Amino acid sequence: MSEIDPNHSRPLDVHRWSDHPKAKKLRDTVWKQYFKEAFPEGGKGNRAKSEPKKQFKVLLLDLYVAWLDDPELSVGLGMTNSAYKENARYNALFISAKIIGVVNQAYEVGLIDKLTGTEGSGHVTRIRASKLLQDIFNKAELTLFDLTEEKPKQEVIILNKKEFKNDRERTAQVDYKDTDFEPILEMRKQVQQYNALLWRTYIDIPDRQKPIIEQPYWDKKAGEIKTKRVKLTQDNKFVRRVFYRADWNLGGRFHGGWWQRIGEEWRKQIYINDVPTIEQDYSGLHINLLYGFQGIQPQQDPYALEKLLDFDAKQQRKVVKGIVLNAINADSEKSAYKAFRQQQETGSLEKSLKEKQLQILLDAFKEKHPAIADSIGTDKGVELMKVDGRITAKVINHFTNKGIPILSVHDSYITQHHHSGELRSVMNKVVTEELNGYNINIDQEGIGLDQIRAFQNMDRANSLDYNHKSIPSNERTEGYRKRLKQHNEWLLKTDCR
Q: Within a 13 Å sphere around the CA of 175, how many CA atoms are in the beta-carbon half?
């Protein structure tokens, strides 16, 4: 094996757990041989909730899951007492500083490879299963379904110190009391019900032989293009609702689920329970919310401007949308231009745009939309995220209560093609409630099966233009079929318990 790459890692999942008999057997076997003498059970301070054996089980199972994903993948964790708050809200399994001793013992007996982190490097310690532990794993015969439980105890309502951009920002979580904000209990119940539904739902992309999508991205720190791997697996579907800047009035968006970390073209290929899907989104949601709050009916397409730069209409609209959304979320126009350029791919035409060119587009947008021009460059976005979080919660709750899984990407929603008409109806209803009767245009590529049937029942003149062939269909790989079979078998066993 190669040396540990600190950039090819993920944080330790402190909620990794399984009561599966094979998981218990694996833990007991390794513990008895390598840890029992170093950590005698019933020793001083070994409270049941944080005893070393329990800490070890979390560590061992998470290393196993990382190994299943990629033997080269390492797990990052802090090796100082200050890195652990045993009774914290975001630590349901009470992982404590005792895990440091467990990690040290594992390294001493040769079960893990380790790359020690330093404060100066900004990296915590990375560990992964050694050749010795991998040989043990090979005999365990555990599947991912055996090792990923529903996580009913893991906190799903998150209060963050700042905006939530990626999973690495979990360290910025703020503790709170359930009495701090009246809706907390109901919100938690709703998100838990949603996660329970997702847990039982098979979500995948049929043409993926392996459940992985690799996407290039620009690593600003390294100054080069790198590849990001997104797992389309059972353990990558957990959703939380996150509030920002330690303020319950800011944010409230839904984060989590691998579908939020892939591009639009990939999302078009998602199947839910082996059924093709359709994605619908609110057109220019934040712009149109600003209009609605002022008692003005939003425009159909706020980003459409006359030709101003040497772009085609579609390309210009994309740039306008990007710069405007950045400007709504920025505290100045200059910082919006900077943020926009940072988001673009190296070598792209968008990346090469000068500040003067971006200003031409933004000024034209403000001239077209004088009613909301004062909201540009005023950090308004985080307030609007509270509204779109509330809208998404209503959409999700509607379908969860009916046992119909949908996937959210902030202001867009993915559903099985035969629920597309109902989704559009619910989206319209929810947004008109939020805007006191005003509506927002909904974008949709393609047409759903229930919409086709509705057209046919209406005997519309063009109904024959639509048929079942309008629903995209992807070839199912052998790997996809195998994963689907495993999921269905696991679900059957779960239902029979």
A: 8
Query: Which pair of structure tokens corresponds to residue 269?
Result: 């290929």
Cα(292)–Cα(277) distance, integer angstroms: 30
Contact criterion met (CB below 8 Å) for 214 and 229: yes
Do 9 and 118 form a contact (C-beta atoms < 8 A)?
no
The more confidently predicted of residues 114 and 444 is 114
* Exposed e or buried b per residue across 380-412, where buried means at least 16 C-beta atoms within 10 angstroms of its C-beta: bbbbbbbbbbebbbbbbbbbbeeebbbbbbbbb
Residue 492 makes CB contacts below 8 A (sequence gap 6+) with: none
Please give the backbone phi and psi of residue 374, each rounded to the nearest 5 degrees, phi first: -70, -15
Q: What is the pLDDT of residues 419-455, one digit of tens each?
A: 999 999 999 999 999 998 989 989 888 777 777 777 6
Question: How far is Cα 127 from Cα 130, in angstroms, rounded to an integer?
Answer: 9
**Could you give the CA distance from residue 335 to residue 350 in angstroms, rounded to a whole number?**
16
Residues ≥6 apart with Cβ < 8 Å to 30: 60, 111, 133, 136
Evaluated on CA atoms 326, 331, 336, 338, the torsion sign reads negative
The first and second tokens of residue 412, run together, are 């867009």
What is the C-alpha to C-alpha distance for residues 13 and 148, in angstroms, rounded to an integer?
11
Which of 112, 133, 140, 145 is closest to 23 using CA atoms?
140
pLDDT range class, residue 166, cuts 50, 70, 90: very low
User: What's the token pair of residue 30?
Assistant: 């390794």
Compute the half-sphere exposure of residue 51: CA atoms within 13 Å on the CB side of its CA.
16
pLDDT band at 463 (very low <50, low <70, confident <90, very high): very low
Give phi and psi for 345, each to the nearest 5. -70, 140
**pLDDT per position as a tens digit, 365-403:** 999 999 999 998 888 888 999 999 999 999 999 999 999
Check residue 169 and give its pLDDT. 42
Rounded distance between C-alpha atoms, residue 247 and residue 187, angstroms: 16
pTM of this structure: 0.88
Instruction: Please work out, in degrees rounded to the nearest 5, the angle formed at the alpha carbon of residue 90 by the alpha carbons of 233 and 396.
Output: 55
Instruction: Show the CA angle centred on residue 39, arms to residues 80 and 110, nearest 5°.
Output: 70
Listed residue (168, 173, 141) closest to 156, CA to CA:
173
Q: Where exactly are the structural domains of the chain?
A: 1-149, 303-368
280: β partners: 413, 444
Averaged pLDDT for residues 37-62 = 78
The DSSP letter of residue 155 is -
